[in-house]
């Protein structure tokens, strides 16, 4: 869906058979706001307001094929926004009619405003996505014929039938400092230009900034198109890119009879293939490290998504694996890692607007507990946050026009986790589970029990 061996920590290969996964709890999902198109990140502002990123549904403007959609055309429009729900339930759209890209005519797979986060002073930072070849972002018209001056790589992104015009969405693929009162944006970092000039993962030149976290004076951005995590000073003075390694799987892990398109995947000796990581979620852990979850690229194998830990050395190490299609993750006040799965089965061959997913809690000792199981209401879920009172909020139905909603997870019965093995005990020591939880994905959280809000 999204665009697109290392030193292992002690939690690596902590499969169900080793650490154990507790049975699902009797959770219920309470709708808070609905009517959001291709709903993405959810977060709380310093005043307790809930913010939902709405990438939008594109429009009937210029189009380009996109790796995000297996090269189906995505077309430009002004349909993105940021949905704000005040603690009293009052709702409004900020940055309304913002630039957007999406499949047409379905309006699925939107890219626009992706996430918003706040620093310790209450300043807002806005992340925009793109989902395509970044060289196409700023161009309004050009010659695509035999006399084109475009570089071959860029020209190859357009099918022969493409007219001599392309996208003009210059506000996408950037990190901004945002003034929510005036609507002004100050660019801090341009992911499109960085991908073209530096291409951190040395793979195909694609960018799709997808998730934002803030800690101290740094922003951490996960780029699902570029297979890269970024550490960026909030004043824009410095940036560092961390390439997320490809996922090596066996051909036997693929569905029987699947025909792999020539050249799309890297085939390795011994019946192995290398697929793109497609990182989609990032969070700052209790130890101050960045944790990154991946969706995995085509052919989207089930059970092969990993979570990386990136410490001060900026080297990604596999921290956990055995998940499916992670779209977001965060830590709660107790230091438990909450992992949101877009779906519990492979996206391949399924209806992307109806893929039952789940929410999994990983305790500091490695014990996994399914808080919301597939079939209990999560469907193509795409973002998660925890309010100051410990309630979990999730963007649900994250694909399609007007389908998206934010739900609160209620009815959870807290259980005392029991270590499942010596692996869990080692993990307890390595992660520092007894340390006070001081750094979370959303540095400043507030949140009351919001009433249901209808967006108009």
Overview of the structural elements:
This protein has helices at 16-19, 152-155, 191-198, 422-431, and strands at 21-22, 28-36, 42-44, 50-54, 63-65, 73-85, 91-103, 113-118, 124-128, 174-178, 185-190, 209-215, 218-223, 228-233, 239-243, 247-250, 266-268, 272-275, 279-284, 290-294, 305-310, 316-323, 326-331, 337-341, 358-362, 368-372, 383-386, 392-396, 404-410, 453-454. By secondary structure, it is mainly beta. Strands 1-26-25-24-23 form a five-stranded mixed sheet. A five-stranded mixed sheet has the order 27-28-29-2-30, with no helix packed on it.
Number of distinct beta strands: 30
What is the average of the pLDDT values?
A: 82
C-alpha termini separation:
29 Å
Radius of gyration: 21 Å
Query: What amount of the residues lies in strands?
Result: 35-45%
Number of helices: 4
Query: Judging from the principal axes of the Cα atoms, what is the shape?
Result: globular
Task: Give a short summary of the structure.
This protein has 456 residues and is mainly beta.
Keywords:
456 residues; mainly beta; 5-stranded mixed beta sheet; 4 helices; 30 strands; globular; disordered N terminus
Give me the secondary-structure topology.
Layout lengths: L15 H4 L1 E2 L5 E9 L5 E3 L5 E5 L8 E3 L7 E13 L5 E13 L9 E6 L5 E5 L23 H4 L18 E5 L6 E6 H8 L10 E7 L2 E6 L4 E6 L5 E5 L3 E4 L15 E3 L3 E4 L3 E6 L5 E5 L10 E6 L5 E8 L2 E6 L5 E5 L16 E5 L5 E5 L10 E4 L5 E5 L7 E7 L11 H10 L21 E2 L2
């Amino acid at each position: 869906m999204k665009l697109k061996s290392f030193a292992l920590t002690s939690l690596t290969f902590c499969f169900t058979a080793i650490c154990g996964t507790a049975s699902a709890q009797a959770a219920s999902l309470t709708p808070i706001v609905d009517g959001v198109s291709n709903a993405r990140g959810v977060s709380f502002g310093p005043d307790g307001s809930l913010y939902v990123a709405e990438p939008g549904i594109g429009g009937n403007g210029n189009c380009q094929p996109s790796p995000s959609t297996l090269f189906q055309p995505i077309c430009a429009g002004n349909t993105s926004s940021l949905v704000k729900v005040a603690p009293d339930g009052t709702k409004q759209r900020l940055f309304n009619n913002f630039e957007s890209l999406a499949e047409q005519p379905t309006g699925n797979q939107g890219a626009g405003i992706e996430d918003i986060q706040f620093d310790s002073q209450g300043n807002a930072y806005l992340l925009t996505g793109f989902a395509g070849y970044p060289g196409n972002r700023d161009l309004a018209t050009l010659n695509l014929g035999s006399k084109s001056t475009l570089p071959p790589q860029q020209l190859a992104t357009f099918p022969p039938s493409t007219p001599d015009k392309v996208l003009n969405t210059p506000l996408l693929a950037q990190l901004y400092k945002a003034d929510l009162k005036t609507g002004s944006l100050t660019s801090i970092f341009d992911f499109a230009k960085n991908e073209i000039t530096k291409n951190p993962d040395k793979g195909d030149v694609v960018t799709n900034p997808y998730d934002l976290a803030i800690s101290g004076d740094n922003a951490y951005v996960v780029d699902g198109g570029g297979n890269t995590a970024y550490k960026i000073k909030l004043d824009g003075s410095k940036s560092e890119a961390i390439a997320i390694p490809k996922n090596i799987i066996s051909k036997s892990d693929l569905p029987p009879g699947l025909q792999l398109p020539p050249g799309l995947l890297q085939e390795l000796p011994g019946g192995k293939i290398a697929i793109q990581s497609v990182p989609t979620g990032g969070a700052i852990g209790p130890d101050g490290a960045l944790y990154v979850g991946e969706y995995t690229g085509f052919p989207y194998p089930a059970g092969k998504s990993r979570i990386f830990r990136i410490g001060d050395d900026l080297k990604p190490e596999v921290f956990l694996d055995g998940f499916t299609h992670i779209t977001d993750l965060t830590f709660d006040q107790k230091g438990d890692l909450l992992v949101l799965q877009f779906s519990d089965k492979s996206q391949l061959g399924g209806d992307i607007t109806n893929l039952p997913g789940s929410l999994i809690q990983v305790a500091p000792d490695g014990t996994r507990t399914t808080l919301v199981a597939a079939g209990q209401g999560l469907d193509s879920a795409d973002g998660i946050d925890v309010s100051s009172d410990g309630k979990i909020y999730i963007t649900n139905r994250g694909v399609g026009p007007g389908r998206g909603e934010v739900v609160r997870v209620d009815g959870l019965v807290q259980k005392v986790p029991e270590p499942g093995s010596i692996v869990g005990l080692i993990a307890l020591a390595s992660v520092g589970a007894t340390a006070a939880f001081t750094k979370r994905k959303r540095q400043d959280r507030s949140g009351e029990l919001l009433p249901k809000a209808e967006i108009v």
